Amino acid sequence: MPTFELLYVSTRPRKTTDQIVVDDIVLPAMRVNRALDITGCLWFGPTRFLQILEGEKDVVEELYARIQQDTRHRDVRLVHSGPIAARSFQRWAMHPIKGSETDEISALLSTLAPNAVPLTAPASTPTRVPENCSLRVKLLSLATRKHAGTPHA
Ligand SMILES: Cc1cc2nc3c(=O)[nH]c(=O)nc-3n(C[C@H](O)[C@H](O)[C@H](O)COP(=O)(O)O)c2cc1C
To answer: How far is 103 from 101, CA to CA, in rounded Å?
Structure first.
């Protein structure tokens, strides 16, 4: 069965503090994801989340269904999902990346927002693949830059 990836964006409410993100979302997610053979990253900017989940299709979709119900974020929108030749985040059960309003991901999300990141479109409307690729490449570059040489699974 080919590996599958899913990218989504969501709105991060103010009440979901950095401490909640790290202690209550990322750390438990790492444990669960390891057991499910899920890898990926979670970029958390001041007002948005962007997450990539990689793994077996059914497992990823089941997890995404749970994540969508989570009240620690809202307006969960699918950016892209589909098969991939290989995982990009194979070293990380869930790599947290703290973002800012001025980083490359925020810039990319803003550029893409009107048409590509379907913040107002139904969750089933994915973006075109090239935009998904640039988000993945940027995330991977942030992940490897920050933790060069230190696997963080
Ligand atoms: C932004 C965000 C990202 C999340 N990422 C994961 C994840 O990668 N893996 C995971 O097991 N849970 C993740 N969760 C937590 C799930 O939404 C959910 O709480 C968890 O799977 C337990 O689900 P359950 O209470 O239905 O058993 C995330 C939650 C949020 C808000």
So the answer is: 6
Mutate to test the pocket of ligand 1, among 44, 66, 95 (most ligand atoms within 8 A of CB): 66
- pLDDT by residue, tens only, the chain of 153 residues: 789 999 999 999 999 999 999 999 999 999 999 999 999 999 999 999 999 999 999 999 999 999 999 999 999 989 889 999 999 999 999 999 999 888 888 888 876 644 444 444 444 555 555 566 788 888 888 888 855 444 444
Residue from 37, 67, 89 whose mutation best tests the ligand 1 pocket (most atoms within 8 A of CB): 67
Closest Cα to atom 7 of ligand 1: 29
Predicted TM-score of the model (pTM): 0.86
The candidate with the shortest Cα–Cα distance to 27, out of 16, 42, 8, 5, is 42
Write down all domains in the chain, each with its CATH number in brackets. 3-146 (3.30.70.100)
Q: Which helix (H) or strand (E) holds 42?
A: strand 39-44
